[in-house]
Amino acid sequence: xxxxxxxxxxxxxxxxxxxxxxxxxxxxxxxxxxxxxxxxxxxxxxxxxxxxxxxxxxxxxxxxxxxxxxxxxxxxxxxxxxxxxxxxxxxxxxxxxxxxxxxxxxxxxxxxxxxxxxxxxxxxxxxxxxxxxxxxxxxxxxxxxxxxxxxxxxxxxxxxxxxxxxxxxxxxxxxxxxxxxxxxxxxxxxxxxxxxxxxxxxxxxxxxxxxxxxxxxxxxxxxxxxxxxxxxxxxxxxxxxxxxxxxxxxxxxxxxxxxxxxxxxxxxxxxxxxxxxxxxxxxxxxxxxxxxxxxxxxxxxxxxxxxxxxxxxxxxxxxxxxxxxxxxxxxxxxxxxxxxxxxxxxxxxxxxxxxxxxxxxxxxxxxxxxxxxxxxxxxxxxxxxxxxxxxxxxxxxxxxxxxxxxxxxxxxxxxxxxxxxxxxxxxxxxxxxxxxxxxxxxxxxxxxxxxxxxxxxxxxxxxxxxxxxxxxxxxxxxxxxxxxxxxxxxxxxxxxxxxxxxxxxxxxxxxxxxxxxxxxxxxxxxxxxxxxxxxxxxxxxxxxxxxxxxxxxxxxxxxxxxxxxxxxxxxxxxxxxxxxxxxxxxxxxxxxxxxxxxxxxxxxxxxxxxxxxxxxxxxxxxxxxxxxxxxxx
Length: 633
Prior knowledge:
Largest sheet: 5 strands, mixed
């Protein structure tokens, strides 16, 4: 699954724990097979009581698949050791990854260290093994079977077994975790986990689906650790360091100050093909530095190792400083090819002013996004057309973003019975068209100022409200915002129910932050979720996107088809720099694309010595276009 790490630039919503992969059902290029002689039998739910464990008989005639043939995507030159130092804009409100206040940006760092049954190769997009060594598909198109790696262990040394997957259902269905989305998904979408022996399981969907492999590659939950699952779960586990299966674990932390991860000394998967020469640093230290400009100052002094330059003013202007001009710091511009996050403005329809579609449309036509791209963003970014862009045949590429047009604003507002006041702002029955835009990142201010100025010309007043990232998430999930300026993550297929179905409207702690409640849209989404036919799902997906576009509760802004980063030269990258799916070249954790870099202590010493002596190097800018796609504003 593509895990999003937006520590500075965005807010992360619920990301499905299901593994997101692209593969043809039953077989895949580069997969080898093995057949067992048994008879297939539909799995049935099993009790989770340790004293009543039941083992079923494994079906016959399963075709077991694996993949050790795809190319590695790490460098044999990688060195072990060192500490990656990164900033944290705000300390998380919890270490839980489910339940209240768990949706902050730091959540991805925790989830990045929890492996799934299978994963996707970031270049070939074939299935590769992770916690499972082999997998097979049932003839019912509802069931997948997995042979678990017997060497897999939790970070406390306890073996990962089939019963940890059974417990995932118990845990995710529990009322005590206070997580409606997970309660619903693991009840309505996952029927059962069946155990054939301690290292062989079957996972059954509640219905046949065309992309079964996208759904059933779930992660285990440490049954032995959550013995206190009950009414006090939220309090008992708020700061618990839960055992995981990945390369790192939280080692120490001080609330409000820092969080430090340590690479496991004897990680069980370190010699596995797709994990070799990865996850190289010994420690990852996140230090709370709330102000982004202060983070930049820390970076220039060598106290932070890498810094995002996606913001144009940083790439073009802020780098005109000594450490860059004397070649002490390197820059890289790396293009990727993947589904694009939904950057934009999310309108809360529970607010009276946005309950009228005409006013939502007027708001959209009052946002001069193109001017922001051209002037503030130096033309570096591309215009995003809709929230589900980059999903191949599941995306309607004919949908065009609404353009800035004062004439259309006036026509819509007059049709709704509004008139311009003496201050130029639209008014009706004592209410002014004045709304607050909530955002969580200081560097968005120049973009919002341009929008504010041109919106005023169109008769709409924007009040800008900057909160820290944690407070931003909290306010938005409590549905107290007018307009949320945030970014939502992606998956391998468009996912609509969480963010657009009325089941999740008008209540806190759900992803329907626009409070969209449209019966026609609900019907389309329900059909999409239930459909067994891929062509039908594609058509439904396109219809849903057009309906969302017509509702106009979301104003798309920009997409960034690349990664731009400044980094100190002691951070080394493979010769290919990254993968097609790399969203961050110095992501330390993601099992899909993370941990490709390493630290060279000799280069660190040479660089710091040269700085003290005033010895300059040739400035280094790397441009990698191997995965560049054609986009237009």
